[in-house]
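Why does residue order matter? Because the sequence determines the fold. Keep that principle in mind as you read this record.
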Amino acid sequence: MPHQTATASSLEQIQHALEVFHTTRDDSQRKSAERFLEDFEETDAAWQVCHIILDQSQDLKCRHFAARTYKSKVIKAFANLNAEDKNSIRGIILHHVSRTNSKEDRAVMVALCVALADLALLMPAWSEATKDVITKYGDNPDLMLVLLELLTVFPEEMGNDKLRLSTSRRSQLKEEMRRSGPRVVVLLSSFSTRLEAKDPETMAKIYDCLGSWCNIGALSLPETMNVTLLQNMFLFLNNIDTPLAVHDACSRCLVNALPDLVHEASASKTKMDDLVNSVLQYEDFYCQALQKEDTDRCKNYVRIFVELAESLTDKEEGSPENIFAYPRLLELLLVCCSHPDYEIIEMVVDFWPALCDSMSLKDERISAVLRNCHSRLIVALWKSCRYDPDGVGGFSPHRWYTWADALCC
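Structure:
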């Protein structure tokens, strides 16, 4: 750790500044306290002071500030440390992460996990970070939430532009994560089996974690599809009585996985048919959710339908016209445009301009299908544009522009 002396007075100053920041109604005092805390975060002493706060303080505001400071300093100053200090900071954050596992400390835990993930991404010398944290925390049931959070943010932070990772470093990290993917799936499967239906919140976290690994293409999905964890994801989505937190997480996971699933299935029409049909079966559950006025679950299903459609029309796959082999999917998207919730309509409407842009309108068959879809889309949007009889509601400029783009495609 950088060699700085943390005095009792500096700790007291931080506590006082945080107290003023969170309680005062005087704007000048609040701004002064905020400025002091921001200036403190820039100092070398902050590394050691935050270590002491997390080790000794029971005040959640202080602990959260210390964790956020670590997160900020890793991004801004970690690269400037020497190798010995980098190893020291890594050990300290690992130590504190393992001591923040209560629900009261969740904000502290998340900030420290993000700090550790960023550190791992910025530290090429730590070549097997995923393996190390699984080895360190994987056998302790009390640290399941900590490990889930870490494994979720590791791939998520790959998209953090503030880290300024080089192209070669990103390639190196993706390869490391691909090697770690099977180990992660085995671990998540063991967690899922252990939980069964006892803890929907943690089960949701398992699928969010899985989805973050799918999102960066770190998993071999043909092999993973045979794992019970993935099969259960489809079963959870096949039941509108699945706890909402789990239903939400499973839909996000499938949305993240679909581009790779479509890519893997593109070489075989049989596999593609199986994949599309496995998604189209959710139409019945969408209709059930619609009848029950369950907007949240309707949104989950619509996100899946739209992601499948977008993946099928992705130009990188080379055959965006593949979607026309599945007229039932286009029909389903038009049906979803009749939903009374504007957010759901917008999800679907956004797809149509992208579809038109990816198509060659020289094909008369495709042009005819698009004209029919366009006519029905106009009718659906016209109906949705009518105000409610009670006069409640309105239209944001964004909605007008979004729908205008769809109508002009």
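The mean pLDDT is 85.
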